[in-house]
Every structure is written in structure tokens, then in C-alpha cells.
Amino acid sequence: MKTKIINIENLDDAALRELAAAAVFIKAGGTVVFPTETVYGLGADALNPEAIKKIFVAKGRPDDNPLIVHIAALDEVAPLVANIPKKAQRLMQVFWPGPLTIIMNKAATIPTELTGGLDTVGVRFPDHPIAQAFIKMAGCPIAAPSANRSGRPSPTQGKHVLLDLDGRVDAMILSADTELGLESTVIDLTVEPPVVLRPGDVTLAELRAVLGEVAVSAHVTDNVVPEKVSSPGMKYTHYSPQGELVVVKGTPAEIREKITKALSHHKGKPMTIGVLASDETMDFYHEGLIISLGSRNDPKEMSKNLFSRLRTFDELGVEKIYVEDIPLNNETLALINRLYKAAGYAFI
Ligand code: TXA
Ligand code: MG
């Protein structure tokens, strides 16, 4: 299939015409990639089972992994769900439009192809002018997972989308790099207390300030406390670069020492080695390809950069990447969650 590429910088009249042309693909049951404030999404009509199947095929995604539905106005929620819980209303008031996906019981009209057979549906109102204009023009709720091939780092730049999906989707709306760089926070409101299934830019502390008690899925806590992983041999292929990624743990001095030692080990061997360090620590290392994730004092910057840095190592053919561990706190939970998954829980 030939993918129509649409580059949009500003939402001027010409851009709106291009968006309208892209929306025609959605109406016809096709697939269109579009930017959001988190990562690029791979969209199709959420109410059309045949269109939804195309998303799974384009991504190579297992069909039991549910998709989230994107809307561009608050009154679009009601038709998608069995009811809107009070807590959901409060979250919508505070965090929408924004990087928060709310799981509720689904309406009968939501196809099971979308939810992977579940009775629940995740809904998100993205805070991005192009995404909002596009959803409105499509005239239907839009199902959209991240626009990467399954298992690859989520795309935060147009070139990542092209690499993964050119020729596999009907159209791509490419724009500036995405602002946040990690996917939305996912909270399940069908259980009490509500549970965070995936951490994101909307933090646990922010959710608790609005809702009171909020639990965190064992998937997430196991992830940051790796000793608890029930089956460490389990194969995780999320967000992974092609090279082998290893998280280096310890005090700052220990991390520096471990990486320096590992690098000296590789010296002279025909293998490309990399280090994912920070602005503050990158000068410590003198072998291999040293890339900064951003400043240690700016978790948002590091989060924005993570997926694109992993892809940079791929572009440069790096075969083994050592990444400095990051101290865990409310602001770094999402970043650490993605980083550890990308490393498949490999630690030294
Ligand atoms: O920021 C984002 O959320 C991006 C942009 C494009 O909006 N989308 C995204 O979609 O990250 P995806 O499919 O890559 O991740 C959605 C996550 C998956 O982990 C999926 O398993 C979970 O949400 N999810 C979706 N619906 C669910 C449901 N009904 N119950 C439990 N988990 C659900
Ligand atoms: Mg994804």
C-alpha cells in the first residue's frame, strides 16, 4: 500500500484541507497516523471492526491487547461507556484534555475487536490541536495505539513513524516531535480503589490529590522493584532497541565504576558499545558512544527523550547499551517503568 504523507506545522487553512483529506481515509475504514502530546498514534474508526483489525495487522500487535479510544469533546464519552462514574467526571475536569486514559465499563456498541474481548474500554481526550481537529473531522471516535511496530519504542518523531509504518497505513500526519514522549497514564475506574495500570505524565500524586486512594498495578510495582518479578525469565519485548540494553544500578559512584569497567572490558573488541548517561555524568565515560538522556534534574526532559534516544542507538548500530539507573520518585515512575521494560529487566 502507498502511504500518503501529510506534513503539518501549523493549523492554517491548507493544513485543515489536508486533515480533511486524511479524515476521508478514516471514514472509509482506513488507517491514519496522527500526532498527540504523548506519542504518535495509529488511528482508525473505533466503531468499525474491520478498520480496527487493520491497526493490529499494521502494528503486528497481538489481538488480545486492547486499544484506547480518542475523542475530541467531553460529550463524546457517554456513547462509549455503560456509565460515567463520579470519579471519572472529576478526572476529566482536572486532566482532560491531556495524557490520561480512563478505563470504564464499555457500551454495547463498542466492538470486542477493540477491547480484546474485555467488557471495559479506555478513553482519552488528547491535548494536541492537530489530533483534536483530525478527530473532529473524522466524525467518529478514533482507536489508536502508539504508532510503532509492536515491541519497538513508541514513536516521538515523524521519522520513527516512517521507519516503522511506511507502506503499512493509508496516511500519516507528521508534525513536530511529540511534547511528552511517554504514553498516557492509564487508570482503571472499574475497580475500587482505582488502579493505575500504566504510569505516565499524570502522576500518582496528582491522581491521589483528586481521588484519594489510588492503587498501582502489580505490573508497575514489580517493574520498579525487580526482585519481585514473579518469573524473571519471562520474555519482555516492550519498547526495545535492537541492541542489548542493560540498566546499571547502585550509588552514583558505583554506577560510574561499573560502567567504566564494562567499557574497558569491551575495549578493542569489534562490538559497538553505548552508554545512555545524563548531562551531569556523560563526561565520566571515554569509550563507546555516549549519549545523554537529559538533565538528572529534569525528569520531564528525560522522559521526552527516552524513546528517541533508544532509536538513535539503533540507527548507529550499537549492539550493547549500558544505561545509568534513575532514582525512583513520583516524577520518575513512568520513565523507570519504560526503561526497565525496554531493558527486559536486565540489571548489573
Ligand atoms: O499516550 C497514549 O496513550 C498513546 C497515544 C497514541 O494516545 N496510545 C497508546 O496506546 O499508548 P497503546 O495501545 O500503545 O497503549 C494502551 C495501553 C495498553 O497497554 C493496553 O493494554 C491498555 O492501554 N488498555 C487499553 N484498553 C484497556 C482496557 N480496557 N483495560 C485494560 N487495559 C487497557
Ligand atoms: Mg504502545
What does this molecule look like?
The protein has 348 residues and is of the alpha/beta class. The protein has two domains: 4-216, DHBP synthase; 244-342, Threonylcarbamoyl-AMP synthase, C-terminal domain (Rossmann fold, 3-Layer(aba) Sandwich). It contains eleven helices and 15 strands. The chain has helices at residues 13-27, 49-59, 86-95, 112-115, 129-138, 158-165, 204-211, 218-224, 252-266, 299-315, 333-342; strands at residues 4-7, 32-34, 41-45, 68-70, 100-105, 120-124, 142-143, 171-174, 185-188, 195-198, 215-216, 244-248, 273-277, 289-292, 320-324. The strands form two sheets. The chain has an eleven-stranded mixed beta sheet with strand order 1-8-2-3-7-4-6-5-9-10-11, with helices on both faces. The protein has a four-stranded parallel beta sheet with strand order 12-15-13-14, sandwiched between helices. Strand 9 and strand 10 (195-198) form a beta hairpin. Helix 1 (13-27) crosses helix 5 (129-138) and helix 10 runs parallel beside helix 11 (333-342). The longest helix is centred in the C-terminal third of the chain and has 17 residues, at 299-315. It is globular. 45% of the residues are buried. Mean pLDDT is 94; it is low at 228-236. The structure holds threonylcarbamoyladenylate (TXA) and magnesium ion. Residues 145-146, 154, 183 line the site of magnesium ion (MG).
